[in-house]
Amino acid sequence: MSIPSMWKIIRSPSTHLSLGVLTLGGFMAGVVFWGAFNTGLEATNTEEFCISCHEMEANVYQELQETVHWSNNSGVRATCPDCHVPHNWTDKIARKMQASKEVFGKLFGTIDTREKFLDKRLELAQHEWQRFSANKSLECRNCHDYNSMNFDNMSEKAQVQMRRAAERDQSCLDCHKGIAHELPDMLEGVSEAFAQLEQSAAVSGFDTGKTYYSIRQLPIYEDPQLAVEAGQLNAATPVKVLEIDGDSLKVELSGWRRTKGFGRVINEDFGFNISSGHLSKAAAQNDQLVSGFERKEDDMTGLEWERINAVVWMRAGSLAESTEMIWDYAKETYQSSCSVCHTQPDENHFDANTWPGMFNGMLSFVNLDGDSQAVILKYLQKHSSDFSDDKH
Amino acid sequence: MSINRRNFLKGILASSAASMVGPSLLVRSAQAAQNDPGIWRITGSHWGAFRARVYGGKVVEVKPFEMDSHPTDMLNGIEGIIYSPSRVRYPMVRYDWYKNRHNSDTSQRGDNRFIRVTWDEALDLFHEELERIQTQYGPWALHAGQTGWRQTGQLHSCGNHMQRAVAMHGNFIKKVGDYSTGAGQTILPYVLGSTEVYAQGTSWPLILENSKLIVLWANDPVKNLQVGWACETHESYRYLDQLKQKVADGEIRVVSIDPVRSKTQKFLGCEQQYINPQTDVAMMLAIAHTLYTEKLHDQKFLDTYCLGFERFVPYLLGESEDKVEKTPEWAAEICGVEAEVIRELARAMAADRTQLLFGWCIQRQQHGEQPYWMGAVLAAMLGQIGQPGGGVSYAHHYSSIGVPSSGASGPGAFPRNPDQGQKPIHDNDDFNGYSKTIPVARWVDAILEPGKKIDYNGGKVTLPNLKMMVISGCNPWHHHQDRNRMKQAFRNLETVVTIDFNWTASCRFSDIVLPACTQFERNDIDQYGSYSTRGILAMQRLVDPLFQSRTDFHIFTDLCRRFGKHKEYSRGKGEMEWLRELYEGCRDANKGKFAMPEFAQFWDEGYVDFGAGKPWTRHAAFRDDPELKALGTPSGFIEIFSRKIDRYGYDNCKGHPMWFEKSERSHGGPGSDRFPLWLQSCHPDQRLHSQMCESEAYRSTYSVRGREPIYLSPEDARRRGIRDGDLVRVYNDRGQLLAGARVTDDFATGVVRIHEGAWYGPMDESIGALDTYGDPNTVTQDLGASKLSQATSANTCLVEIEKYVGEVPPVTAFGGPVEVR
């Protein structure tokens, strides 16, 4: 039967059946159809369906089995649809439409090996994170409700974090990414803990004239296209935003440098080896980028220092409004990493210029990525006897 | 499970997969063990990894781990650690303390009379005392900061357990520095910008390839590399084997500068250069003088990478300070090395690539900062710092430093600190004007002179008024100096609690002693290779805790239960949960870089290997870019003159390295007329500090008539009518001990040695009592190395020896307490 002739039949009024029969029949057929559709839909909402694909079974399902959502004291298990299928109908259908893309991937083999899955993991995860972020982790909160939480039963550390989260009605996944599956490799060379710090501390909008603090070591550039590298900003360094150009920020970095050598290292203040960052040889010698002011001799070394302002470009991101959360992270990491072998010295046990020597000497015993090293050293220097009232 | 087709197929797959992987290491050992009854387990220790055969609940055989190509002889002492008569069997309380608590007669401390109590009673007493100290005094009265060479294992690391638990109850006094490298780790950050003593060094392959001259300065790596901070791999020995070959082939010249023919010198068959004890700085100054006057120094290197050479030269030339020119002739008088020999060595150093390798002994003496600083100055003058096979190292004898690091992450540990946000029961941070952190070796000063202000590293320290000590994972009655002074001091303490598996002298002088189990009686995990991070090792429990001993985890969970913090303490997790977590944390950190199996598989197989690392040169980055890779010194450069130290205005550590006369020095130095022999108390060859001294059968392989050996020269023996194997009394104004004479050509006249770590066994509790076993710290002096480091000066010590003719007392050091019923 051709399509036009079928269309004709559908369009023609009924000649044999009464309106009632038609209405009722249509209703019945609707019920049957709906039932079948819903049953089919529900079938796609079972764990069996989810893991009928090899990709799911071999990757995320295996990972789930290692977590508390699979096996725990109370015997309650969260299966795939509990977290990944919205319980509300409209959202559910929307998610199903989206998921068909993943089925397409299955049929056409985009994700048919572990390697390909891992390559895709970040993208796939980000879809889910966006969804959780938009609905404030609704699927988590179907079981875990802020109102039902007894904060007093939590550890003191958890209390602080969870009370803060509850006040802000924060989305669970803001902090609990990777709770049921392994995390994707997010940023090359950036540790998981750092990625989390960045999630919670980074601001998204910038105002000109305002000062922000780098969360980790960040590249700086000579141009707004971010094409010519000018050096690197150290962690927890204040920069003043002068101009916003799309995703690029023009920032001012102020500090002091030694005049011996090329003057590449910018320190926070005169006589203090607290690094704010460093410049490339070319940038350090470029009067267009770096303006010099007064010079004086550091009595402790006999070397001459120069106050400078460097104006450079950087990507808009990984900047915080204050150092508060950065120091929280640094403090905790310092206390846990550096107490593995010995009692970690108090922050104010040494002065700012002694800390680099003490810290560098012990680094081979701890597992700290470059950003963590930088931020901890700076934390120690900024809380050293030079900045502490409680000297000893 | 019923056998259906699917499971059947899965089973076939699994077994064929297993056969493809091949027999694991564990399977191999299991096969080897087929003829012997029992099962084989794997574990690790400071002495290396090994497999133990356990039969009938007892360790009956120990053999080295297959990865260890150079296992130490000390593995023969392992069984003796577990089954030692010196084990702490039950919770014990000192007799008079039990009767009178903190008002006890403290002069009875050391009489070794104890009462056995139950665990509950012991922990109640411990808790009540913590409570009393915090409420009656404050955090300044409690010293829980002495920690040290705990048994290995990252989870059960006992110092972490003790400090976490005590910190959950209240604050306390802590220490900074340690007894091994106190002076070195304080001076070198000023000079080279890092402690150096605990930093990875230039890789051995690069040294073997590039060095033409290696100077071992007071350094005995063949002796000291037997032990490591984490599980030791003994990887360095393969390179020492190669070095020995190169010495034989004439490819590398090695000179050992040492008053003693060391184990290393004899192993390598290298040159021996005798030097008078404690005079190393004089010889180094003369080498510098030769380099400078003969223009052999690298002025370009000094200009580019160093500061302050111009302020050091006048001292060298006799134009400043003492106005004495530091010529080889001047030095020869002091150090006993001929001037021409010094000149020849200086020229040889400058002629080609020279690697200086320092040991730690010469900084464990008065002015211990100076030889390390001067070593750096020599290396700077030679201009080879940052080049492969050149420059200076202070650590190639320690924990396989110099074996390239794999780059993998090791496992974390049970947290030493309370979790973030946790407040102690007594949240009192008022230290009553006392310093809350003290230099490690000055705690006995604090007990004797509370409130005294001392100089330390540019600041002032006010010594706290200590009333109570908690000791775990260390043995202060071995590692501190001057026993009789300690005895005096301990009379001022109200309560001392020690947690140990061994009845050490520290237990003898305590009030409450809690029996921990050994590391072989618990499950744990460790890094294989402290610096090389060669792999991760499972430490499978060999046997259950003996007697009433418990893991430190168990002990301190129960202590915390007494103040309602046990859940916070353990985070509600047990041993295996913690192990899994530490392992998974390590696996996460290595993700994408080093493959690690699931925990269960790891635990079965017992070991994950990360492979060998790439060779690396210390300070090469600095040499390449001194601006960006600046050193951690105040200037970022090598500081030959330190304005900062100069500003401190100390009389015993000034702006640049100098020769200082010692309070006691042999070979014509101060005090040598009364006590002519220099006593060196270096690290033992057949123990790890005081660990394994309790291993009876193993101790008998080196003890002399049941006493610790004292090594002396044939000439010194002859003059005193002493023969090899004789019992001798070693004494000075500070104390006296019995030891067994070992007369050997390896020792020069005027030089004697007792290895530190020999257990203290006094005749009785009286001050001045004879030590019956031979602990050298019975006679060493308790003196800060300088106002800078305030470190131990154990090697500044003179003694006299005589043949012992009196009635021979039994050895009291071992075998536990006298139980009063």
From TrEMBL, chain A:
GO function terms (MF aspect): electron transfer activity; heme binding; iron ion binding
Matching SUPFAM superfamilies: Multiheme cytochromes
Residues passing through the membrane, by range: 16-37
Subcellular location as annotated: Cell inner membrane
Annotated GO biological process: anaerobic respiration
PTM: Binds 5 heme groups per subunit.
Binding site for heme 5: C338, C341, H342
Cellular component aspect of the GO annotation: Gram-negative-bacterium-type cell wall; plasma membrane
Record carries keyword Cell inner membrane: yes
Residues binding heme 2, per UniProt: C80, C83, H84
Membrane topology: Single-pass type II membrane protein
Protein's UniProt name: Cytochrome c-type protein
Automatic annotation (TrEMBL), chain B:
Protein modification: Exported by the Tat system.
Entry note: cofactor: Binds 1 molybdenum-bis(molybdopterin guanine dinucleotide) (Mo-bis-MGD) cofactor per subunit.
Domain Molybdopterin oxidoreductase N-terminal: 43-83
InterPro entries in alphabetical order: Asp_de-COase-like_dom_sf, BisC, CT_DMSOR/BSOR/TMAOR, Molybdopterin_N, MoPterin_dinucl-bd_dom, Mopterin_OxRdtase, Mopterin_OxRdtase_prok_CS, Prok_Mopterin_Oxidored
Top-tier EC class: oxidoreductase
PROSITE patterns reported for this sequence: MOLYBDOPTERIN_PROK_2, MOLYBDOPTERIN_PROK_3, TAT
One GO CC term on file: outer membrane-bounded periplasmic space
Residues that bind Mo-bis(molybdopterin guanine dinucleotide): W149, R364, N475, H479, R522, D552, N777
Gene3D superfamilies xrefs: 2.40.40.20, 3.40.50.740, Dimethylsulfoxide Reductase, domain 2, Dimethylsulfoxide Reductase, domain 3
GO BP, sorted A to Z: anaerobic respiration
Domain Molybdopterin oxidoreductase per the UniProt entry, residue ranges: 87-561
Native species: Motiliproteus coralliicola
Pfam families (UniProt xref): Molybdopterin, Molybdopterin_N, Molydop_binding
An MF annotation (GO) of this entry: molybdenum ion binding
Domain of life: Bacteria
Protein localization: Periplasm
EC number: 1.7.2.3
Protein name according to UniProt: Trimethylamine-N-oxide reductase
Signal peptide: 1-32
